[in-house]
Specification:
Length: about 775
């Protein structure tokens, strides 16, 4: 019995820490043989590791400045693999509900014994013969879990070693965080350039250099060899200069972002050293020194260098001269080409003026403007409207005070009449407790409010002061000499109190002083804003209006005149699916461009073009008019379920008005949702398991994938017709059939489920 309890304790301890039982020194084979058969066959339910627990597990293998045995002791740990499953899961799941597609225990044993077959876990999807696209290699769910476990380990190893301007693939360091840094930190930029790469993939040279960089911190030959095998079988593909990194497309892997940050880490540190060197050479002057030794009207602007990198997008800005920007560009291009072996597009990596030219970064347009452009002063009409509103507010407050005084007076009269009536009818009140203190507090509070309100009224105080002090004969000297001294002293004290509390001169002086202070503050803020508008440059971030309107027209939301039109292809979908498809695109656009200065334009496109295109599509399907569709679904496009409860998927007009730059997130672009539509098959296929990650539902329906850019007959290489910077889903996924449950097909339409969360190797081909 003691041995059994000891084994149970060791099982609990080691599975929580991630160590296999066979590695525990205190468990002898003889002791293991005493374990009952029921306990041997009982599956172990792991708990997902927290970030601190995972960090402790990784740091336990840190010795002499290097990490060792990460594959066998960390990645192969069942709790780590279970945590990776939890990260990949499209829905919450229990250990007992893991699908039968792979076993955590078997995967852990294969990794620990270094016999994990990467090639066998990859599936090649071949596009149709009509296209010239290369085959797409995708990992199955088992390999995805291992890749996610490796990503988690590398994140613990390198995340704290990355520079501060490295964004993408890091927790809390997404697109909106990079844009927030640019808007808040970049001041007075004069010249900048964005690095553009020629489209090319990581080759053997890049993989070897990446592995050599990792070997500086990770002394694990098995770990390095596993990463090389992932690149060899094309389960990991890193392509620079493309339009699919960080977009949630199926050809992208979560490990790619971490490996790209590791590969660019040396380059980032060179840029950081360059920035620190410029800051040392151009130090900021002490404000006391400027105010005493120099003219106070002189403004000193130190030369600074700013840099931001989001995966393969690099932006470098400087407040110095154009010659300095050219030197920075030469150094950056040289470091990327010679140091990292990357192919830079030197023609498009051009220097632009920050004031007169816009530059594209992260799918948005940046430009240096005056502060008054971002926060324009109020117009005269707005000032008059504001003053009118304040006057109306004061009138409403006065009416409320008068109503309170009137109700209080009525209540007081009722109380006194009731008390007087009771006293007349009886000899007095008899209570078990004393209420005099409560009554005194109530009347004292009322009296204080009345007195304060009276003393705050200057006209009332002036009238009482005039009646109590003007024309008094007791001020005459011959009269005062004939009166008793006690009376004269009492009168003087009374006059002092009258002057103290009722004299309006002090109150008028206080009001005039307050008005003068407010006027001075307005003048100072105006002068400060004027000086800042003449001496400072801020960053304005805008959504690319031309690109968005071109995408709206390309997909078919609008006609050639810019008016909403129906999309005939979507008529084959259910009513709710049509609304959810439009809602997913609308929310993706709103979430992505909520940090832009012209967010109002994006709101207009969503509330007008997309909403009425959806309404017209529903009218086209039911052969009805727009008014009838609005009457049935309402303008908010409400959908009713089987129980009669309505659901609103499309953003309402009130919800759109309340949106703005309030959160820091890393939203996915709209590419994966804009050119994807899944249509339910009319045939009755046998039930199959949902292919969303770790979904154990078998009540599924088959949906066929349709890529809209194939139906548009537009070549993505044609820059005049195609939308610049718009990513594409791989051609091999066209016409594939996906067994999905109801919840996950709704999430796919709404954009909550990306194509990365689907196990495409288990998709089928149905005629």
């Amino acid at each position: 019995m003691v041995a059994l309890l000891r084994i149970r304790r060791i099982i609990t301890c080691n599975t929580a820490r991630g160590f296999p039982l066979s590695h525990h020194p205190s468990l002898k084979p003889k002791l293991l043989s005493t374990l009952p058969l029921q306990l041997q066959l009982q599956p172990i339910e792991w708990e997902p590791l927290t970030k601190s627990q995972l960090k402790t597990l990784v740091l336990n293998h840190y010795t002499h400045g290097n990490f060792t045995n990460l594959i066998q002791n960390v990645v192969a740990s069942p709790p780590v693999l279970f945590t990776a499953c939890q990260n990949l899961a499209a829905a919450p799941f229990r250990p007992a509900s893991l699908p039968d597609r792979f076993s955590i225990e078997t995967t852990s044993r294969e990794l620990r014994e270094n016999r994990f077959d990467v090639e066998a876990c990859c599936v090649t999807l071949t596009p149709s013969s009509e296209t010239t696209s290369s085959p797409l290699v995708l990992p199955n769910l088992k390999l995805k879990v291992v890749i996610e476990a490796i990503r988690m380990v590398l994140e613990i190893v390198y995340d704290e070693r990355f520079v501060t301007f490295c964004y993408g693939g890091r927790v809390g360091m997404g697109r909106h965080t990079a844009i927030r840094y640019l808007k808040n930190s970049v001041e007075n930029p004069s010249w900048w350039f964005a690095v553009r790469f020629k489209p090319h993939r990581f080759e053997h040279f890049h993989v070897e250099k990446l592995c050599s960089v990792i070997e500086r911190k990770v002394k694990d030959a098995v770990f390095i060899d596993f990463i090389k095998r992932l690149f060899q079988c094309k389960a990991l593909v890193i392509e620079l200069g493309g339009d699919w990194l960080g977009r949630g497309l199926p050809q992208e892997c979560g490990l790619c972002t971490v490996l790209m940050n590791v590969y660019f880490d040396g380059f980032d540190k060179e840029i950081q050293e360059m920035r620190l060197r410029e800051n040392r050479e151009n130090r900021e002057l002490d404000p006391k020194m400027i105010g005493s030794g120099l003219d106070s009207d002189v403004f000193y602007k130190p030369v600074k260098v700013y840099a931001v990198r989001y995966l393969d997008e690099i932006l470098v800005a400087t407040s110095g001269s154009k010659m300095m920007a050219m030197e920075l560009r030469t150094g950056v291009v040289k470091s990327l080409e010679l140091g990292l072996g990357l192919r830079v597009d030197k023609v498009n990596t051009a220097i632009h003026s920050a004031v007169s030219e816009k530059i594209e970064f992260l799918g948005m347009e940046l430009q240096a403007v005056r502060p008054s452009v971002l926060r324009p002063p109020m117009s005269e009409k707005a000032i008059r409207a504001r003053k009118k509103f304040l006057r109306q507010k004061e009138v409403r407050a006065l009416e409320l005070r008068n109503a309170r005084a009137r109700n209080r007076r009525k209540l007081g009269l009722k109380i006194f009449s009731h008390v007087y009536k009771k006293i007349k009818q009886s000899d007095g009140f008899k209570f078990d407790y004393n209420i005099e203190d409560q009554v005194q507090k109530i009347f004292r509070s009322w009296a204080d409010e009345v007195v304060q309100e009276f003393l705050g009224n200057i006209d009332e105080c002036q009238e009482w002061h005039r009646s109590l002090s003007a024309g008094d004969f007791l001020q005459l000297r011959h009269i005062r000499n004939q009166l008793p001294p006690e009376l004269i002293d009492a009168y003087d004290k009374f006059q002092e109190q009258v002057d103290k509390h009722l004299n309006p001169i002090k109150a008028r002086k206080a009001i005039e002083e307050e008005e003068r202070r407010v006027k001075e503050e307005e003048e100072q803020s105006y002068s400060k804003g004027t000086v800042a508008d003449l001496t400072r440059l801020c960053l304005k971030v805008e959504a690319p209006e031309i690109v968005i309107r071109k995408a709206v027209k390309l997909v078919g939301f609008t006609n050639h005149m810019g008016r909403p039109r129906p999309i005939e292809f979507l008529v084959a979908l259910e009513d709710a699916d049509i609304i959810k498809w439009y809602a997913g695109i609308a929310r993706r656009w709103l979430d992505y461009f909520c940090c832009c200065h012209n967010f109002k334009m994006v709101k207009t496109i969503v509330t007008y073009h997309l909403r009425f295109s959806c309404i017209l599509t529903l009218a086209e399907k039911h052969e009805s008019t727009k008014s009838e569709v609005i009457k049935h679904f309402s303008k908010d496009l409400k959908v009713y379920d089987m129980n009669g409860n309505h659901e609103v998927h499309f953003p309402t007009e009130r919800e759109v008005k309340m949106m703005g730059d309030r959160n820091l997130s890393d939203p996915k672009p709209v590419d994966g949702t804009l050119f994807l539509a899944v249509v339910r098959l009319a045939s009755n296929e046998p039930p199959s398991r949902c292919i969303a990650h770790f979904c154990d539902k078998t009540t599924t329906v088959f949906y066929r994938v349709h890529l809209l850019h194939n139906r548009l007959n537009v070549n993505p290489l044609d820059k005049e017709k195609w939308v610049q910077g718009m990513g594409l889903i791989h051609e091999s996924l066209n016409h594939k059939c996906l067994p999905l449950c109801t919840d996950h097909v709704n999430d796919l339409y709404m954009g909550r489920l990306t194509l990365q969360d689907i196990d495409f190797p288990y998709c089928v081909d149905v005629d």
